[in-house]
Each structure stands twice: as structure tokens, then as C-alpha cells.
């Protein structure tokens, strides 16, 4: 039952160790002493080693050439086609929903729920409990379906407003671009409910007029220069997973809007194994970054729930947080160096030292700037050797209060595993409903026995109990030791170990849940009260707004910190009988957010502000704080070239 | 929305109110014992984790809040934390309730017997109780009954027991503790005892507030307390006290509960048990110390017909909706919850406004008996020196006129319409036969008669004029306490009528100024929400225009032909208070050196002198309540200053110029814009 990851074979580790490292000083990374050709040589050498790790045909060499960038090389396309995100994203992804086209929930002919595709552990499985859960929880019913507009109707898209002079000069640079309607629509939205709903109904508002695909940093420099010269509005686009309306084109924008899609800037430029850093182009998506690093025995450990699609640049621009931040840290802890192209020029620090006392950290103007100041092109990130051993786990608590107390204690003792999450009762039931059909009678018998043990023998109330899912990583021995420590603490709070399988399913749920439109999360310090109040507020608002069935209103604690925690709230309701469900949704979400702020929560833990949460910025960071941000924007981008109007 | 229900004054006639059900009727037809032993399974708060009284105490003693204060106090006083914790435990022991079902059953049995002999009926609005049940299930509940009698909280628990609702824990004054057995019995029926004043005692405050909050937050039981702080001796609602309301709102403001329901309850007695007791107290005979034997004696003397009681459970008011868009709750997150903080100005004013709303909600749902209106007529006749009394049919006509007027103003009048008015009047009069005398078809207050009864065995000649006056005052103040029950119905129109009366012209602005002055002057006397002058003025105008007494255009206010009677009546409603305040001003003008303690006896002597010489008409001015309110108003307005500390502690510093001009303005001799208003 142990899901160990392929351990580092001795021969691979020796290969890594044999990698040359020039600098004697163990301080930071590249010192300024080396001349450029030298550096290039080392980089080349290192990359060929990496290429070896990648175990790809030799031609891959051209794909990961460090120092130079081939702007219009077809060869580059060859390499990126192996990557997850092609230029024409619509070929593999839904244009009007989350994720891959081949993965979705549907009811099969027998009326059972099924998750299609091959990509996930749940894919291709029948989920017998889901339908009943849907029906009992919020009266969702087979007979009431809302069909989506199946394909994009190009005539519904406004013709592009093109800036001819800009276009002409852009053509001369050879950077690929497109003003095809599908390409433009695909980059006009993130994944807020209202955005997806509008697409499903075939309603299309202001969309970018042009999409460009720079291949490297220098391409971006050229594009930004041209945009400034011709007064064109630029909107950086990474993974397109925003849930803050950050990608919505401001309807009042009269200039030509150019969507700058970073997806083709997706190479790892170098890995520095001595200093454990990797220099990566910002357009790479999480799963590629992780996969490529894994191939050389490393990982960043940054695993936001959206990592299948979200990009490194997007993480930096929104101050993202990963599931395993307890070991690896959040993006601000992981980033060592950033290169960003702004209308005033390129900003980067002169060294890659781990810490500087040089006034306020300029990285913090970049992290969380949400595309309002420029385009992040390259990032140096910390990397870690891949963990030798990984183990899931789960603990059942008699109630949410006990679970929270346990998490608090774990955080106090600073022994949090790579990830520890606490699902409330509603979500536990949902997780249960997502259990695939069991293959053998024995398994189902075992399940029944477990249920009996917990509810009857231990006296847990099935309507109150909640589950914490755990993920341990590290040396096998340490993991086992760590696991014992955490389970011992849990036992003090009435927790019962509930097996690896439950834990793993909990994490799988994270990726799959996105396919069932449920949204959003934030943070806290007064977890219990905030959870109760926000959930109650959601239920009340839904009732006030005429939602016929009680909504699903649920939460989970996803991160613990020394001084607080991060809580996700999910809510879903059956919109049958509502004339404007999106509006109701927005009102409820608005109310929930006010409730969170009133209860001492923050505006956003890691999704950013975008346009959705702008109205609360002033009260969150004070007028002076707003002025500080404003003056940075005014200096860096006086003509509002990066005009997505997020944040401020 | 609940908040609207509390505030709406647009058309009081249209206010929908529930019907009543008599709970004594069933008691008269079935066994009290079976009733007392019935199966009692109330609906509880959905989030409740049941706990014992001792666990509750442990939770208080172990709370972070109390822990913080204990550490603080131990540092300040140089004691060990164990010692301070011991003190805290002792305070808690003295305070805590020990709700016991057996005691409740005992009370249910005895009270059934007592109530049946004392009262004709106890009427309750069952819909209100259903709403309450719902509220108890959904949120922690605070019950806020009006307070006119000792009976109030026994009655509340009795009703809740009858309807199978969760029994409340009740904040009671420490004075009950003096009654040994009864005190303990009350404790076992859910009362917890608090000291009347504990201003500087940090530890006491911490234990007390934590105790209340923990009971409330956990939904252990509804918390009941009296917003007015003490029994109103005059039957007028008292200015609300904010301490406890502040405490019970705190868990919501700090986000510890989703919402709290505040349920105003209006209890009205057709005849108050403490009628004459209150009158004597107001006249300066000190209140007898609460003692068990005293209570029994009172019970023996008072074993006669007290008519009926009406209890109205109002619409639950959600603290959440009260706070909506008024309070920025995120301010509470910058300081850890367990550190006690003084509420900010913003919060204090929010709590104060809420308290006024709630008291007004109590007033509006207070059932008024016909006798209350008769009291108006009787007192006005008496003040008009009508020695012969009024002929019964004229009396009835006036009562009917007043009935219609009060209904137009939204009074919750319980006047049986299917019975001829003359019968309603005569049955009301007979219930209060101690206060009225009917001879030869004429009605008047029984002034001399009572005087005779008060001093049996002595000849009339032995009574000094002063004693005779005081005896008359007992009757008058008893009667006043009934009239006062309906004052809230008339007060805004009455302020307007008086402003019109004294204004030199018809100009709306001038009348508004006069209204605003009077309203400000009397805001210690009546429940007038602070800062709502404009709304009150509009409400008064609306009512008077609606009933055809006034015509108001952009600039002017005009009295209509038929409006004169209404306005004359309304002016006479406020007149005793106007004259009372004037006399207090006059008295203070003539004084040189006075301490706060000397004030009441001295002003009483001054007033008696004026009454005996016939310079003052209203005997009710002898009420110490009015005198205290007047002084408080003058202090608030700055005409009198109370010196704090030093040798002259408690001395009143008088601003004669201002007192003089206030007196003149009240008497209508000075226009309101001048001098005085400038000072205000």
C-alpha cells in the first residue's frame, strides 16, 4: 500500500554529483567574476547533462539552449509540443470550462455519475455515490440540465481593433501572433464562475484584439517597447487559471488590447545543483516544471492546486501558495531572483544571494503585481532533491473543533507534515460521494467494517466527524518517525488514523473538484468562528436570494502557519428557478467575503485581488498603502501600458 | 426585516399584532399538580453541547479572558494568581445560578395557585412564543422584558415553562439575596445575582461578563435581563442601561457567534401589585428592604382582584441586522479577543441606539387597558380643580374620544369593542375602586377618602395640611403610574403641541426649534432616541396631520377647527412636566449652596410649600422621579455642575443665569432660539 516514489538510484545521484561546479565559495550562485563565454560553456555542459536526465532523443538539445533564444525557430515548436500547453490551447482544453476536454463529470446511460478521460486516478471510473449526494445535498436532479453552447460561435466575437503600426513592426520581429477569434476568446477569461457561465451561454464581451507568443525574454522586451511606442495595451497571460477576474479585459479600454501569452517561454534555462537553484522561463506550467526537474532528481515542491495549468509567472504575479509549503515554502520563499520587463526597462537584482538588506525588497513590488507593472520573464527558484519517500495519511476527528485544535497543536510544535488539511463534515461527505465503485466484495465489506468501527464503536457522529488528510515527505525513517509524532498529537484530540487511501483520495479530490465548479478560499486566525459564521452567512444569503434548495456550504483548512491558517470555503447551490443565477452567486460570494473580512480574515491568501476583490483593497491595506502602490505604478508604467486594471 | 419592525412608525394604525391566549384558563380546568409534573422537553439551541452548572463555572474560570484579568489583578495587587483565582471563584459562587427542574416545578405549582387567586387572566401571544422557539433553535437568545413588578421574571419563567420553551437564566439584583430562602429558590429557578454597582472592580466585571457570555455563546439557555435596570416606579420606561446589552452583543461583534436574537417582551398589568408602594417610595417613604417576610405580608394584603396581565413577545431583533452597515466588525481583530477593551465611541453609540430601539419596541407592544385612558381624564379633571367630579356620561364620552385618538396614534389598546363603552368604563372604575369615587353619577379621584383610611383611629383635625397633601399625592401618583403607561403614545405629538402653543408664530422652523428644545429638555424623562429629533418631529407632524388636527405646508403649521380639542389635550399631557421642571429651576435659582444628597428633600419641601399656597397645580410634581430627571437634564445641559472629588464632593454648582432663562423658556416667556438654545 505504500506509494513510494521512484527513489534516486545510486547511479543517477553519482551523475549529479559529478557535475562540475566552478566556484569555490559556497556563498551564493554565479559570482560576477566569470566571463560570459565561460558561463555559457558551463551552462551548455550542465544542460547537456540535464538533457541526459530527460532521457529524450538527442534533438532535445536544441530545445533547451540556454543563452540564446531562437525567436522564430520551428525547432522550438518541436520541443514545446511535448509540453503540456500548445499555442492553440483549445486543441486539448475546454474553451468554456476547467481543464482538459477529455476529462469531465457526466451521467452515463444507467444514470450513474462517471468521470471521463484517462488523466486522473478517478478517470474512467463510475462514482455511484455522487448522484445521490448531489440530489440529497442540494436537490440537483438529472431531469434538470442546462446544456452549454457546444462550440464557439466566431460571429459573436467583436472584430479586433488593430493598431496597424504596431502590427507592422511586430511582423518585422517575427514573433508569432494571431487575431483568430478562438485564440482571442480563449485568453479573455479566467475561471471565475461568471466568466465560465457567460461562455457556456455563448455571451462574449470585450476580448483581446491580438495574441502574441513571445519565445524568450528578448521577445518580450521587443513587444513591450513596441507597445509603449504605439500606445497599445498589454495583458500578460500565463496559465489562464485566474479566479479573480484578472484576465477580464476592461470594457472601457479603447486601445488595442494585446494578450501576451507566455506559454512558449517554457524552458528550464539552467540548474545549479551546488546552490540548489534553477533558472526557468516564466511561462512554464507547474506540471512541466515539476516533471522536468524530477527527471534530474529535483523538485521545487511548489504544488498549488492549479499546478496542472498555472504558470510560474502567474505564481509570482499573484503570490501563489503551494500545498506543500510547510516544507518548501510559498512562492515568496522559493523565489531567488526575478527578471521582469516593464515599460521603464528590465528590473532584476544584481546577484542571487539568499538575502539582502538593501531597503525594501523590490521583489515584493513584483510578487503580487498581477500584471500591472510588467511581464515576469525569467525566475530563479530554489529546488530540492526529490524526496526519497512519500506517504499519505488521514485522521478522523469526532468534530471540526477537535480537528482545528489538533492542527493548532501541530503548528505549535512546528511538526506539520508537507501538507495537512482538514475537511469539514460536508466536505468529508462529498469526498465519500466521490469514492469510485469498489471492485471487490471484500473491499466493500472492509469499508462497511470501518464505518461501523468509527460510528458505532468509537461513537463518532457521522454528521459531525471530519477528516484531516496528511502528506509526509522525506527520508523513509524520518517520515515514519514524523508520522508517529503527528498521529500521537492527533490521538490527544480524539483523532483516529483512517488510512492512506482516504488521505490520497483527499488530495486527488483537490484536482478533480475543480471540474465540479466550486470556488474560492482565504484565511484566518479565528478558524472555528470564521468557519461557522461564513458558512452560516452563505446559507442565509442563498435563502434570502431565493435559492430553493439549501446550498452546499463547506470549508477546509488547507494550510497552517505559526500564527494562523488558511481556510478554503466552497459553496454550491442548485440554481433551478432562479432567473439570474450568476448574479445570485456573485451576491452570495460578495456577502461571504464581507463576512470573512468582518471576522478578521484576509482578502486573499493566494489567489490575488484582480478586479473581483479590488473594492476591498483600501480597507485592507489603508489609504497610505494604496498610495504607495499607486506611486510605484505611476513611476513604472505612467501610460498604463499594462492596462489590465487589476489590484488598484 | 426585524430592524424595520422595530423602527417603522409610518402608519401605526396598520401595525399588525398577534392575538392573545389566556393561559390561566387551562389552569382553572385541570390539575396544577399534573401540570407541574408534566413532561418538559424544550427545543434547545442547535449548536448546544449540554453541560452542567459546575462545568459552566469551570469554563468561566479557565477562560482566557478571565485568565488575563487574573494575571493583571495579581500584578497590581501583589497577590498570587491562585489567590486571585480564589477570589474569582468566590465571586462566581456568589453569582452563579443553579437552575433545577424540581424547583421550577415547585414554582410552577405554587405560582399557578397564586396567579389564579390574584389575576383574572394571563394573556400571552402564542405566535410570539412560536417565533421565540424558532429563535432559540437558531441563535443564542436574549430576552428583554419590561420591568414594572417583582412578578416579571417569575411570570416569564412560568410562561416559558408552560409553553415548553427553554428556561432562561436571569440577571437579578443582589438585593434579592437578602431574602434567604427565596433568594436560593430563585437561584435554583435560574436567577444569577449581580451587585448593583461594581464600577472599579475589574475582577468582578471580568467574572460577570465572562459568565454571561459563556452561557450565551454556548446556547446554554436564553439570557434574560431588564434593559431598564430596575423596576420602573412610574410605569414610564426608564432610560436603558447599557452594561449588560454591551456584554451580550460582544460575542457577535467579535465574530464568536453568527447572530444573536434579542427578544423584547412587554408585560402590562391591569393593576400593579406594588401600586401604592411605588407611590410612597416616590414621595420619600424609603423602599422597604426586600425580605422574605415582607413579601409574604405584601402577598396577604394584596390578595384581591388584580385584573389581567398581558405579555407580548415581540419580534426577535437580530443583532446582525442591527449592526449591518453600522459597525465595522473587522476592528475587533486587531486585538486578541481575550484582552478586555473599552468599547469605542462608535460601539457605545451603536449599543445605545439599539437599546433605545428595543425599549421602544417594548413600549409599542405594551397592552393598554381602558383604565389607562381613564387615568388621563381623571388627572386632567383633578388638575382643573374640578371639585364636583365629572358626570358619568360626559366622562364616558371623553374616554371614547381618547380611545379613538390613541388608536390613531398606534396604541395597543385592549378595549373590548363588543361591550358598550359605559360598561367598559364602569368595570374599569370598579377594579380600581381604591383610587376613584363615584357618587351621584359623578366620578372623581378618591382623594379625601384615602386620606381617611391612611390614618385610622385619628380624627381628621389631627392631620396637618402637609400630611393631607401627601395622602392625596399617594392616590394621584398611583393614578399617574397608570396614565404613564400610555405616555409614549402621545409624547411626540404632545411635544409638538406644546411647541406650537408657546411659539410666537406659525412658522414651521420656529415650531421645530421649540420642539427640539423641549425634546432635548425631556430626554431624561421619556424614551426619545438620541439624535432622532428630525424623525420624531416628522412622526409627530404625520400623526397630527393624519388625524386632521393640523395642516402643514412648506412654511407654516396651522391648527384646524377640529384640531383644537386634540391640541388642548396634548398640551395638558406635557403640562405637569413643564411645570415640574420650571419649579425645579426656580428652586435651584433660589438656592445658594446645595449638595446632591440634599437636593431631593429640599426640592420636595419647596414644592409642598408652593402646592399649599396654590401657586402650583400639579401634585404629581412631588414625584422624586421627576425631580431626579429634571436635575439630570439640567446637569446634562450644563446649567448645573456636579463637583467630583475634593472637599466639596457632590456639591452642585449652579449657573443661575442659565437656570433662569431655562425656566422662562419652559414657561413660554422666552423664544427658544434666544439665549438658552445658544447654550445648548
UniProtKB/TrEMBL annotation, chain A:
Keyword Cell cycle assigned: no
Domain FAD-binding PCMH-type: 204-386
Principal localisation: other
Residue sites binding FAD per the record: 236-242, 318-321, 370-376
GO biological processes: ether lipid biosynthetic process
Site (Important for enzyme activity): 421
Active site: 568 (proton donor/acceptor)
Catalytic activity: a long chain fatty alcohol + a 1-acylglycerone 3-phosphate = a 1-O-alkylglycerone 3-phosphate + a long-chain fatty acid + H(+)
Cofactor: FAD
Keyword Ribosomal protein attributed: no
This protein's pathway: Glycerolipid metabolism; ether lipid biosynthesis; Lipid metabolism
E.C. numbers: 2.5.1.26
Enzyme class: transferase
InterPro entries given in the database record: Alkyl-DHAP_Synthase, FAD-bd_oxidored_4_C, FAD-bd_PCMH, FAD-bd_PCMH-like_sf, FAD-bd_PCMH_sub1, FAD-bd_PCMH_sub2, FAD-linked_Oxase-like_C, Oxid_FAD_bind_N
Cellular compartments annotated: Peroxisome
Binding site for substrate: 517
Recorded GO CC terms: peroxisome
Assigned keywords, A-Z: FAD, Flavoprotein, Lipid biosynthesis, Lipid metabolism, Peroxisome, Transferase
The protein's assembly and partners: Homodimer.
Family the entry assigns: Belongs to the FAD-binding oxidoreductase/transferase type 4 family.
PANTHER family: ALKYLDIHYDROXYACETONEPHOSPHATE SYNTHASE, PEROXISOMAL
Function: Catalyzes the exchange of an acyl for a long-chain alkyl group and the formation of the ether bond in the biosynthesis of ether phospholipids.
Protein name (database record): Alkylglycerone-phosphate synthase
Automatic annotation (TrEMBL), chain B:
Phospholipid/glycerol acyltransferase domain segment(s): 141-270
Keyword Transport carried by entry: no
GO molecular-function term, one example from the UniProt record: glycerol-3-phosphate O-acyltransferase activity
Pathway terms, separated by semicolons: Phospholipid metabolism
One term under GO cellular component: mitochondrial membrane
Keywords of the record: Acyltransferase, Membrane, Transferase
GO terms for biological process, alphabetical: ether lipid biosynthetic process; fatty acid metabolic process; phospholipid biosynthetic process; triglyceride biosynthetic process
SMART domains noted in UniProt: PlsC
Cellular compartments annotated: Membrane
Entry keyword Cytoplasm: no
Protein family (similarity comment): Belongs to the GPAT/DAPAT family.
Protein name, entry field: Phospholipid/glycerol acyltransferase domain-containing protein
Amino acid at each position: 500500500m505504500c506509494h513510494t516514489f521512484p527513489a534516486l538510484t545510486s547511479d543517477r545521484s553519482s551523475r549529479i554529483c559529478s557535475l562540475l561546479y566552478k566556484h569555490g565559495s559556497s556563498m551564493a550562485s554565479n559570482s560576477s567574476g566569470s566571463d560570459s563565454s565561460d558561463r555559457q560553456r558551463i551552462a551548455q555542459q550542465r544542460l547537456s547533462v540535464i538533457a541526459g536526465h530527460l532521457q529524450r532523443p538527442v534533438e532535445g538539445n536544441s530545445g533547451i539552449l540556454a543563452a540564446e533564444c531562437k525567436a522564430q525557430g520551428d525547432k522550438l515548436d518541436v520541443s514545446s509540443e511535448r509540453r503540456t500547453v500548445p499555442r492553440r490551447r483549445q486543441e486539448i482544453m475546454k474553451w468554456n470550462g476547467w481543464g482538459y476536454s477529455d476529462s469531465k463529470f457526466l451521467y452515463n446511460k444507467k444514470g450513474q455519475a462517471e468521470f471521463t478521460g484517462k488523466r486522473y486516478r478517478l478517470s474512467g471510473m463510475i462514482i455511484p455515490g455522487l448522484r445521490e449526494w448531489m440530489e440529497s445535498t442540494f436537490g440537483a436532479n438529472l431531469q434538470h440540465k442546462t446544456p452549454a453552447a457546444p462550440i464557439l460561435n466566431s460571429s459573436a466575437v467583436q472584430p479586433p481593433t488593430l493598431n496597424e503600426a504596431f502590427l507592422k513592426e511586430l511582423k518585422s520581429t517575427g514573433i508569432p501572433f494571431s487575431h483568430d477569434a478562438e485564440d482571442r476568446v480563449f485568453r479573455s477569461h479566467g475561471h471565475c464562475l461568471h466568466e465560465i457561465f457567460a461562455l457556456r451561454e455563448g455571451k462574449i464581451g470585450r476580448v483581446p484584439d491580438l495574441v502574441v507568443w513571445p519565445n524568450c525574454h528578448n521577445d518580450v522586451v521587443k513587444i513591450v517597447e513596441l507597445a509603449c511606442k504605439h500606445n497599445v495595451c498589454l495583458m500578460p497571460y500565463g496559465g489562464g487559471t485566474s479566479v479573480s477576474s484578472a484576465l477580464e479585459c476592461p470594457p472601457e479600454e479603447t486601445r488595442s488590447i494585446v494578450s501576451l501569452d507566455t506559454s512558449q517561454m517554457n524552458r528550464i534555462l539552467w540548474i545549479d545543483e551546488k546552490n540548489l537553484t534553477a533558472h526557468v522561463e516564466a511561462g512554464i506550467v507547474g506540471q512541466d516544471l515539476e516533471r522536468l526537474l524530477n527527471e534530474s532528481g529535483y523538485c521545487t515542491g511548489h504544488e498549488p492546486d492549479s499546478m496542472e495549468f498555472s504558470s510560474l509567472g502567474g505564481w509570482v504575479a499573484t503570490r501563489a501558495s503551494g500545498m506543500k509549503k510547510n516544507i518548501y515554502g510559498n512562492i515568496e520563499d522559493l523565489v531567488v531572483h526575478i527578471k521582469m520587463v516593464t515599460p521603464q526597462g528590465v528590473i532584476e537584482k544584481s546577484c542571487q544571494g539568499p538575502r539582502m538588506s538593501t531597503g525594501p525588497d523590490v521583489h515584493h513590488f513584483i510578487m503580487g503585481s498581477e500584471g500591472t507593472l510588467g511581464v515576469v520573464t525569467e525566475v530563479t527558484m530554489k529546488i530540492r532533491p526529490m524526496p526519497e519517500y512519500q506517504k499519505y495519511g488521514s485522521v478522523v476527528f469526532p468534530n471540526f473543533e477537535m480537528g482545528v485544535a489538533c492542527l493548532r497543536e501541530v503548528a505549535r510544535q512546528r511538526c506539520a507534515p508537507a501538507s495537512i488539511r482538514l475537511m469539514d463534515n460536508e466536505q468529508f461527505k462529498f469526498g465519500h460521494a466521490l469514492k469510485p465503485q469498489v471492485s471487490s466484495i471484500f473491499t466493500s465489506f472492509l469499508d462497511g467494517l470501518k464505518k461501523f468501527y468509527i460510528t458505532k464503536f468509537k461513537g463518532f457522529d457521522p454528521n459531525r466527524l471530519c477528516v484531516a488528510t496528511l502528506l509526509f515527505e522525506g527520508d523513509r525513517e524520518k517520515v515514519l518517525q514524523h508520522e508517529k509524532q503527528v498521529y500521537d498529537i492527533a490521538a490527544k484530540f480524539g483523532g483516529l488514523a483512517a488510512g492512506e487511501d482516504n488521505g490520497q483520495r483527499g488530495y486527488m479530490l483537490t484536482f478533480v473538484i475543480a471540474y465540479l465548479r466550486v470556488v474560492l478560499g482565504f484565511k484566518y486566525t479565528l478558524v472555528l468562528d470564521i468557519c461557522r459564521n461564513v458558512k452560516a452567512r452563505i446559507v442565509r444569503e442563498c435563502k434570502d436570494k431565493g435559492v430553493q434548495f439549501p446550498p452546499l456550504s463547506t470549508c477546509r483548512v488547507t494550510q497552517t502557519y505559526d500564527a494562523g491558517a488558511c481556510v478554503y470555503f466552497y459553496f454550491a447551490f442548485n440554481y433551478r428557478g432562479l432567473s439570474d443565477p450568476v448574479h445570485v452567486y456573485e451576491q452570495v460570494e460578495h456577502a461571504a467575503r464581507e463576512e470573512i473580512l468582518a471576522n478578521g480574515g484576509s482578502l486573499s491568501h493566494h489567489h490575488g485581488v484582480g478586479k473581483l476583490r479590488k473594492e476591498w483593497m483600501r480597507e485592507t491595506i489603508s489609504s497610505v498603502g494604496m498610495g504607495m502602490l499607486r506611486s510605484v505604478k505611476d513611476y513604472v508604467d505612467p501610460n498604463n501600458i499594462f492596462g489590465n486594471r487589476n489590484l488598484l | 426585516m426585524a430592524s424595520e419592525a422595530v423602527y417603522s412608525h409610518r402608519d401605526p394604525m396598520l401595525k399588525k399584532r398577534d392575538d392573545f391566549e389566556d393561559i390561566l384558563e387551562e389552569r382553572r380546568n385541570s390539575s396544577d399538580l399534573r401540570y407541574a409534573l408534566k413532561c418538559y422537553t424544550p427545543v434547545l439551541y442547535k449548536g448546544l453541547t449540554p453541560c452542567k452548572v459546575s462545568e459552566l463555572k469551570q469554563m468561566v474560570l479557565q477562560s482566557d479572558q478571565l485568565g488575563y484579568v487574573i494575571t493583571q489583578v495579581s500584578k497590581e495587587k501583589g497577590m498570587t494568581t491562585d489567590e486571585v483565582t480564589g477570589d474569582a471563584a468566590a465571586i462566581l459562587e456568589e453569582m452563579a445560578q443553579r437552575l433545577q427542574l424540581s424547583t421550577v416545578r415547585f414554582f410552577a405549582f405554587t405560582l399557578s395557585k397564586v396567579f389564579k387567586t390574584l389575576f383574572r387572566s394571563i394573556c400571552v401571544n402564542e405566535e410570539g412564543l412560536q417565533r421565540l422557539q424558532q429563535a432559540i433553535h437558531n441563535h443564542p437568545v436574549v430576552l428583554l422584558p419590561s420591568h414594572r413588578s417583582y412578578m416579571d421574571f417569575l411570570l416569564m419563567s412560568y410562561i416559558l415553562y408552560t409553553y415548553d420553551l427553554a428556561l432562561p437564566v436571569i440577571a437579578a439584583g443582589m438585593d434579592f439575596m437578602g431574602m434567604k430562602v427565596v433568594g436560593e429558590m430563585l437561584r435554583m429557578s435560574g436567577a444569577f445575582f449581580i451587585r448593583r454597582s461594581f464600577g472599579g472592580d475589574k475582577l468582578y466585571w471580568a467574572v460577570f461578563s465572562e459568565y454571561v457570555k459563556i452561557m450565551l455563546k454556548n446556547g446554554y439557555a436564553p439570557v434574560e435581563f431588564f434593559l431598564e435596570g430596575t423596576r420602573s416606579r412610574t410605569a414610564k420606561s426608564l432610560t436603558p442601561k447599557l452594561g449588560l446589552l454591551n456584554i451580550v452583543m460582544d460575542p457577535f461583534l467579535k465574530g464568536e457567534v453568527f447572530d444573536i436574537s434579542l427578544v423584547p417582551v412587554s408585560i402590562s398589568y391591569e393593576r400593579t401589585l406594588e401600586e401604592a408602594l411605588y407611590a410612597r417610595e416616590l414621595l420619600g417613604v424609603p423602599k422597604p428592604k426586600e425580605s422574605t417576610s415582607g413579601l409574604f405580608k405584601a402577598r396577604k394584603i394584596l390578595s384581591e382582584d388584580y385584573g389581567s396581565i398581558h405579555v407580548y413577545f415581540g419580534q426577535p431583533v437580530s443583532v446582525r441586522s442591527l449592526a449591518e452597515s453600522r459597525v465595522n466588525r473587522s476592528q475587533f481583530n486587531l486585538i486578541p479577543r481575550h484582552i478586555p477593551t473599552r468599547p469605542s465611541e462608535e460601539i457605545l453609540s451603536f449599543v445605545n441606539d439599539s437599546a433605545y430601539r428595543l425599549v421602544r419596541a417594548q413600549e409599542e407592544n405594551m397592552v393598554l387597558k381602558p383604565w389607562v385612558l381613564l387615568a388621563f381624564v381623571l388627572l386632567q379633571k383633578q388638575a382643573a380643580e374640578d371639585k364636583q367630579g365629572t358626570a358619568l356620561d360626559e366622562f364616558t364620552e371623553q374616554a371614547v374620544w381618547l380611545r379613538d385618538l390613541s388608536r390613531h396614534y398606534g396604541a395597543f389598546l385592549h378595549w373590548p369593542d363588543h361591550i358598550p363603552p359605559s360598561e367598559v368604563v364602569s368595570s374599569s372604575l370598579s377594579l380600581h375602586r381604591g383610587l376613584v369615587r363615584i357618587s351621584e353619577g359623578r366620578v372623581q379621584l378618591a382623594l379625601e377618602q384615602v386620606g381617611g383610611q391612611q390614618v385610622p383611629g385619628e380624627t381628621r383635625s389631627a392631620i396637618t395640611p402637609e400630611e393631607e397633601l401627601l395622602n392625596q399625592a399617594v392616590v394621584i401618583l398611583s393614578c399617574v403610574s397608570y396614565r404613564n403607561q400610555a405616555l409614549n403614545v402621545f409624547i411626540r405629538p404632545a411635544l409638538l403641541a406644546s411647541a406650537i402653543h408657546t411659539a410666537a408664530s406659525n412658522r414651521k422652523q420656529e415650531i421645530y426649534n421649540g420642539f427640539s428644545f423641549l425634546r432635548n429638555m425631556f430626554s431624561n424623562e421619556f424614551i426619545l432616541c438620541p439624535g432622532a429629533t428630525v424623525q420624531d418631529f416628522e412622526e409627530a407632524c404625520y400623526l397630527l396631520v393624519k388625524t386632521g388636527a393640523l395642516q402643514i405646508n412648506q412654511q407654516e403649521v396651522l391648527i384646524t377647527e377640529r384640531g383644537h380639542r386634540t391640541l388642548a389635550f396634548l398640551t395638558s399631557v406635557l403640562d405637569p412636566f413643564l411645570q415640574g421642571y420650571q419649579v425645579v429651576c426656580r428652586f435651584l435659582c433660589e438656592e445658594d449652596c446645595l449638595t446632591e444628597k440634599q437636593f431631593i428633600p429640599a426640592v420636595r419641601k419647596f414644592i409642598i410649600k408652593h402646592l399649599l399656597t396654590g401657586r402650583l397645580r400639579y401634585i404629581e410634581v412631588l414625584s422624586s422621579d421627576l425631580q431626579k430627571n429634571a436635575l439630570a437634564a439640567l446637569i446634562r445641559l450644563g446649567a448645573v455642575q456636579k463637583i467630583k472629588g475634593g472637599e466639596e464632593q457632590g456639591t452642585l454648582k449652579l449657573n443661575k443665569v442659565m437656570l433662569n432663562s431655562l425656566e422662562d423658556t419652559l414657561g413660554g416667556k422666552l423664544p427658544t432660539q434666544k439665549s438658552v438654545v445658544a447654550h445648548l
